[in-house]
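Ticket opened by: R.M.
Priority: normal
Category: complex prediction / small molecule

The reporter submitted a protein together with magnesium ion and asked that the result be attached to this ticket for the collaborator who will pick it up next week. Submitted input follows.
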Amino acid sequence: MDPSEIKKKIDRFRILIIGRANAGKTTILQRVCNTKENPDIYNSAGEKIDAAVLIASRERGEHNIENEMVFPKNPGFIFHDSRGFESGGESEYDEVNKFIADRSKEGNMKDRIHTIWYCIPMDQASRCFTEAETKFFSRCDTGSIPVIMIFTKFDALYATEFTRLTESRMSRKDAKQLAPKHAKETFENGPQVKFLYDPKTIRRPPKCHVCLPNMNKDDADCGPLIERTAETLDNGVLQQLFVSTQRTNLELCMKYAVEEPEYLPIICLP
Ligand SMILES: Nc1nc2c(ncn2[C@@H]2O[C@H](COP(=O)(O)OP(=O)(O)O)[C@@H](O)[C@H]2O)c(=O)[nH]1
Ligand SMILES: [Mg+2]
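Result attached by the on-call engineer:
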């Protein structure tokens, strides 16, 4: 089938983002869509939910994973938001598990979840992996949907690294400059990353992980998340759809257009 025909059928790229409240989920989605606006929310019938109704149901602590979040700046992405499993425990896990099971083998390709981003905030490093994460990565069968672990608010680790460097007699100026790089190295070689990929503890590890610092800053760079997501999609059509939908990384568009020339019109003329 002509790639542009397939693109018409799949329509839009659908992402499930999971993470406890305040993990930085909305901030990442805004960055990916290059906007500061709030998303419009639609119910599963595709009807826009009135903002007042939404605020009232949030105040009652209600949440519906089926609702679709769309940022008008980039309507090519549909996001589903899950608040993680801490608050509701088992029942929230069951809801997410069922949603993933339904949406991984959905007959209609366009209703399927194409990627899962699982967020863990690093500003509560002592609670990095809770029981919820262990449960999700041990039990939840995500089928062919790639899962990417995002360590959010990664800048929270810089202060500790700065202190460590100054204590080893480095000047404050150098320590400030080197803290981000050292924090990343320490983390990559540390117990949390080991735990994540240890088959004895985690039966269904994510495809990969990415560390995102300072997503709340104006010059934030979500490039690593975009690149990893593109790499983990093994379906060529979905990969091209993702690359053409994201608009923050033009180099990536060119890279995939060069590798797959038949998709050039889709990527360059979305
Ligand atoms: N330091 C820091 N703060 C962040 C980062 N990303 C988001 N935040 C802040 O964390 C708070 C919660 O973010 P939000 O995106 O609303 O989290 P959500 O509840 O998971 O959607 C907000 O005050 C953000 O400005 C980050 O990368 N670093
Ligand atoms: Mg949010």
